[in-house]
Every structure is written in structure tokens, then in C-alpha cells.
Design goal:
Oligomer: single chain
Largest sheet: 8 strands, antiparallel
Number of strands: 8
Order of helices and strands: EEEEEEEE
Strand order of the largest sheet: 4-3-2-1-5-6-7-8
Radius of gyration: 14 Å
Structural class: mainly beta
Helix content: under 10%
Number of helices: 0
Distance between the termini: 39 Å
Number of domains: 1
């Protein structure tokens, strides 16, 4: 599955970071839920200096720490990166970034960034 396939409006209900054993050894993962579907992003650590998003697939796992349903819009950034940004519709702030930065550079970097402080439900009134 490609990140760009997730563009558009969704309901976000959580994210969970972890690891997975692969033939590269133990690698980082990010699970996130959109519209009740759990997506798993898997890092390829490459040679230790470079990394990139290796795989994106769905699974039946539930997120262990769900959040209240949040309306989001997913934007795919593809000029120099291959990044999916999950943006809270109510305040316009980015709450999740997943993908590869500097994709055509000598040192691409896999990105799993979660900013729960940007969720509108976490803002101080």
C-alpha cells in the first residue's frame, strides 16, 4: 500500500509505536488507526546511516491506547519526501507524520512523529 492512498478526510483514533522482528533484525513500527482500520508502517534501517519507510499494510490489531474520535485530513507530501501528514481538522495542526524525508538524497530518513499536544482535545482552553 502507498501513503498517497490515504489522502483525504478520515477519523483518527490513535497511534502506537513499537518494533517488529524482520530479516533485518528488530525494526521500528508505527501503528495508527483511520476510520477503524489499523495501518502498520515499517521502517527499513538500511545501513544504519540511512533509513526509509519499507512497508505500509493493514492489520486486525487494535491500538492499545485509543483516543477519542478526531476528524482529520491526511495530506501526502511528495516533492522531496514521501510523507503522510495527519492534520486535526479543528485546529489545522499536524498530529502525525509517517514516511521518508529526503527520499532522493544520499541520506533518506524514516519518520514516525506523533505530536499529541497538537490534538484539539489536548489544547488548554
Amino acid at each position: 500500500m502507498k501513503l498517497k492512498e490515504l489522502k483525504g478526510k478520515h477519523t483518527f483514533t490513535g497511534v502506537e509505536f513499537g518494533t517488529k522482528k524482520t530479516y533485518w533484525g528488530e525494526v521500528n513500527t508505527a501503528k495508527f488507526q483511520l476510520d477503524g482500520v489499523t495501518y502498520v508502517a515499517v521502517e527499513n534501517p538500511s545501513d544504519g546511516y540511512r533509513s526509509y519507510l519499507e512497508d505500509l499494510y493493514t492489520c486486525d490489531d487494535k491500538i492499545t491506547n485509543p483516543i477519542p474520535e478526531t476528524d482529520v485530513v491526511c495530506v501526502h507530501k511528495a516533492t522531496y519526501d514521501d510523507i503522510l501528514e495527519v492534520i486535526d481538522v479543528q485546529n489545522g495542526e499536524t498530529i502525525l507524520r509517517v514516511g521518508t524525508e529526503n527520499i532522493n538524497d544520499y541520506y533518506p530518513v524514516c519518520i514516525f512523529e506523533y505530536s499529541p499536544e497538537n490534538l484539539h482535545i489536548n489544547k488548554i482552553i
